[in-house]
Amino acid sequence: MKSPIVAIQQFDLNGLESLSDSTLMSYLDGKFSPVELKSFLRFKNRISQELSQHPLFTENHFINWFSDTDLSDYDVQHFLIQFAIFAENLAHAQFSQMQSIDSAQQAAIQDMISDSLVNGADKNLFGQLSLNLNGDGNYSDVKQHQIEGGLLRYMTPHYSLIAKVAEHLGMPFELLGQKELATDSTDFVCRELIKLYSHPDPEVSYASAFAMEFWMEQGFWDHILAGLIRYKHTKGISDFPVAVFTWNGQHHESYQKARMKKLEHFYFNHVVNEEHFMNAADDLLDTILLFWEGLYSDRKSIH
Predict the structure, then answer these.
(1) How far apart (Å, rounded) are the C-alpha atoms in residues 125 and 134?
(2) Looking at residue 11, what DSSP letter applies?
(3) In which element (H, E) is residue 143 found?
(4) What is the spatial distance between Cα 127 and Cα 177, in angstroms, rounded to a whole number?
(5) Secondary structure of residue 132 in the 3-state scheme
(6) What's 55-302's CATH class?
(7) How far is the C-alpha of 114 from the C-alpha of 128, rounded, in Å?
(8) pLDDT, tens digit, for every residue of 214-270?
């Protein structure tokens, strides 16, 4: 049997190879027209081009400073505390988005996420996780769950490794994720994340999640890693763990493939208003930029 791509090669559809077999088979079955496939491919390119020009990527003063300065203990500690709060509340925001999915998916999600996250919004996810890592490279607590044909991963090492870095700085484990320690800007950003992810308009909710994943692929991990490695050498800490930033930075390509597959599924199963989608994605990126700008403002008040 010919592949879907071979079967429709007579059409002028540049980028066809990036579409999933299910979409191409739906086209062959008459569900989609060549115009619809072209519209999606054009929209996909537009998203990447326009989002990449956002000031979050072109004018992020904090990560540029963080990667190229001699960080003090306080600089690193303050960053970790605020970033852990951001990560904790992002997890809550992502779970709030799950309220709109079907019960079978919710059951799988609830099996993945700790009872504190599912049943108590005021409890601290970091406080429920143990440090179960052997060195920087052993991701021993990766839970995988099959959800309607797609693999969804819940990475407790993402949290455990942040805690591991904090441990080397002499920071109590319980400090991480505590919203009482959030600066005003971090607190505002966290509330905005919940608002965007749980928005009643599914297009706003999805565009927000898409933009978040887009941001995570764009290399900010590399800047943070550079700063932490510089700090590690300056302080002479031979076993300073930075694997969470290394791991995320090394998986951009796999993240991107998964993100584009989800975008494709959303596009062909909803009536997408492109301008509305782009505005919602911009709002999410604006929110993340506020987080970094808050950290940069904190840094200027100290140095």
Answers:
(1) 21
(2) S
(3) strand 142-147
(4) 8
(5) coil
(6) mainly alpha
(7) 7
(8) 998 887 888 888 998 899 889 888 777 776 666 555 556 666 778 888 899 899 988
At 260, the amino acid letter reads: M
Tell me which residue of 139, 87, 131, 128 sits closest to 243, measured CA to CA.
139
Question: From the CB of residue 175, how many other CB atoms can be counted at a distance below 10 Å?
Answer: 19
Structure tokens at 248: 């995320």
pTM for the model stands at 0.78
- Sequence spans of domains, the chain: 55-302
Structure-token match 């999933």, residue found: 20
Overall residue count recorded for the chain in this entry: 303
Q: Which residue(s) pair with 147 in the sheet?
A: 150
Residue type, 262: K
The span from the CA of 248 to the CA of 197, in Å, is: 22
Regarding beta strands 142-147 and 150-155, do their DSSP bridges make them parallel or antiparallel, or are they unpaired? antiparallel
Helix (H, G, I), strand (E, B) or coil at 200: coil
Tally of CA atoms within 13 A in the half-sphere of 3 that contains its CB: 8
CB hemisphere CA count around 271 (13 angstroms): 0
d(CA 261, CA 266): 9
